[in-house]
Design goal:
By secondary structure, this protein is of the alpha/beta class. The protein has ten helices and six strands, in the order αααββααβαβααββαα. It has a domain of about 160 residues: Uracil-DNA glycosylase-like domain (Uracil-DNA Glycosylase, subunit E), CATH 3.40.470. The protein binds iron/sulfur cluster.
């Protein structure tokens, strides 16, 4: 079979069939080239999505990964937290936000009585580690974002927190810098979204002085707690 015919046939698997008719056998046949779209509704559940991510070759980050890092936390949580991509420890453990940044994130959440096992679902824009922890390229982010959008659809959070510029741009297409828009509520597909500083940035800026990043994060996390309380009332 010619490559073009093969691709057309494979694209058809996504484009023409409703997700409900896809079978586990079909998943195994699907190559994961970035040229194949992943429309909304492709995955019936997060396990299917994880299966596909685990064999994904949609971008060059596949070649350097130890693990595909998909998520941690509660898949039924009202809050989804989106980061940039896995670092070394995340890649080794196969879980997002488990290094120093993750520990700080857990502390920030705990400060307003949120815990990472029950109250949040955590994931990243790209699911494979960029070499030397560099920022993912636009091409890599674009290849992986369809998985993220499917995670949003399946988890169905009320609130989405975008940690850092890559998450903000990746999901919302917002190109203003994080320092300009952090702490502002934005609406995306009927969900409350707030850009916040990435915990790694807070680790590099440890001052708690009024107006500094850590102080601003404290304001933001309180606003997030308030929004959660209002939305579950
Ligand atoms: S980063 Fe995303 S798109 Fe790229 S290979 Fe990994 S799972 Fe696939």
């Amino acid at each position: 079979m010619l490559l073009d015919d093969f691709m057309t046939e494979q694209i058809g698997l996504f484009g023409d069939q409703p997700a409900a008719t896809l079978t586990p056998e079909t998943w195994e046949q699907i190559p994961t080239s970035a040229s194949i779209p992943i429309p909304a509704g492709t995955y019936q559940d997060l396990d299917q999505l994880a299966q596909h991510c685990n064999q994904c070759q949609r971008c060059g980050l596949a070649s350097g990964r130890i693990n595909v890092v998909i998520s941690r936390g509660n898949p039924n949580a009202a809050i989804m937290i989106i980061g940039e991509g896995p670092g070394q420890q995340e890649d080794e453990q196969g879980l997002p936000f488990v290094g120093k940044s993750g520990q700080l994130l857990d502390k920030i959440l705990a400060s307003v009585r949120l815990d990472t096992k029950n109250d949040v679902y955590i994931c990243n824009v790209v699911k494979c580690r960029p070499p030397n922890n560099r920022t993912p390229t636009a091409k890599e982010a674009a290849a992986c974002v369809p998985y993220l959008k499917e995670q949003v659809r399946l988890v169905d959070p009320k609130i989405i927190l975008l940690t850092g510029g890559t998450a903000l741009k990746g999901l919302l297409g917002e190109t203003r810098g994080i320092t300009k828009v952090r702490g502002q509520w934005m609406e995306w597909e009927g969900r409350h979204c707030m850009p916040i500083f990435h915990p790694a940035y807070l680790l590099r800026n440890p001052s708690r002085e009024k107006g500094k990043p850590k102080w601003l994060m404290w304001q933001d996390i309180q606003a997030i707690r308030k929004k959660l309380d209002e939305s579950v009332e």
